[in-house]
Amino acid sequence: MSQTIHLIGCPVDSGKTRRGCLMGPDALRTAGLTEALCDLGLTVQDVGNLTLPNLSDITPTGPGFKRAENIGWTRVIAHASERAQQTGTPIFLGGDHSLSLGSVLGSARHAAHENRPLFVLWLDAHSDFHTPLTSDSGNLHGTPLGYLTGREGFEDFPRVETPVPQDNICIIGLRSVDAAERAALQKSAITYCDMRAIDEHGISRPLTAFLEKVRAANGLLHVSLDVDFIDPMFAPAVGTTVPGGATLREAHLAMEIICDSNLLSALDLVELNPFLDDRGATAQVITDLAASALGRRVFDRPTLHR
Predict the structure, then answer these.
(1) Using CB atoms within 10 A of its CB, is residue 76 exposed (0-12), middle (13-18) or buried (19+)?
(2) What is the C-alpha separation between 55 and 157, in angstroms, rounded?
(3) Does this model's pTM top 0.70?
């Protein structure tokens, strides 16, 4: 992991019908993300928020809610991702999970340039392995892993020159998977760990095994953290709440294990909808988790007003 962190705001709100995620990047800034990372001795460069490019040359040829906007965002975010990884570790401030169509595409391009394999850790209640052809809702925030592994239905999106091998992907935190995704996952080589497995064996075992695989392959690691990975009791500001998620302690442990591995090359913070938050509580949780992934330890934080 580089000591230079690039904060890249991605106010993407086109991957689903419920609005509000476009406010996520600024909520994370307001929660003190920059200051938290600077306190760790990191060099933090905030490039501001990306903007949606002109869409006049995009004529969508397939289904999907706001497909043209998602194609445009994928283009601009992929370019920013690839460029940022040449000089540091980017953190993509979301924005809904469709931003990962671009952020991970940029990571795949960077990995190919470095002649190293890319691995993706997906911390999420959902598998996001749909395609526009299999999604009943048409919401493209449920399709990034389908796109990045080369599934059909994305022909007018930027080409994924080097699809992420399925066995280079690990999904942890699953607890809401529909029939089509379940069938596709079971036929795939993707490693997935639902909340029952975490309840029975803990979160460290599957995560450590995956990180050991990344290290053995000299791989780059892109981590995508969805707010709904965490139980809504602790992180309510998400439009797709699913009870029974990771506790705060489990989530921090996961971030600390990722930090200890020193493998992190890019991080997504997605699906934060401040419109649904309780006085900024979720933005603070995500800020603290990002800090844990980059070096903060729980015992570093003093108790206030003790």
Answers:
(1) middle
(2) 12
(3) yes
- What is the side-by-side strand order in the sheet with 118-123? 43-49, 4-10, 89-94, 264-270, 220-226, 118-123, 169-174, 191-194
How far is 289 from 36, CA to CA, in rounded Å?
Answer: 10
* Residues with Cβ within 8 Å of residue 196, at least 6 apart in sequence: none
Phi then psi for residue 269, to 5 deg, are -120, 105
CB 157 within 8 Å of CB 101:
yes
Of residues 133, 171, 168, 137, the one with CA closest to residue 154? 133
Q: Can you list the domains of the chain with their CATH numbers? A: 4-298 (3.40.800.10)
Give the pLDDT score at 303: 53
At 271-286, the pLDDT tens digits run 999 999 999 999 999 9
Q: How far apart are CA 230 and CA 248, in angstroms?
A: 7
Task: For 42-105, give the DSSP string.
Answer: -EEEEEEE--PPP-TT----S-STTHHHHHHHHHHHHHHHHHHTTTSEEEEEES-GGGHHHHHH
Average pLDDT, the chain: 93
pLDDT band at 304 (very low <50, low <70, confident <90, very high): low
DSSP state of 150: T
Residue 20's Cα: distance from chain center in Å?
17
Question: What is the Cα–Cα distance from 19 to 275, expressed in whole angstroms?
Answer: 9
Predicted confidence at residue 299, as pLDDT, reads 57
Q: Which amino acid is at 250?
A: E
Q: How deeply is 115 buried, as exposed, middle or buried, from its count of CB atoms within 10 A (0-12, 13-18, 19+)?
A: exposed
Q: Which of 65-69, 86-90, 136-140 has the lowest mean pLDDT?
A: 136-140
CA gap 67, 72 in Å, rounded: 9
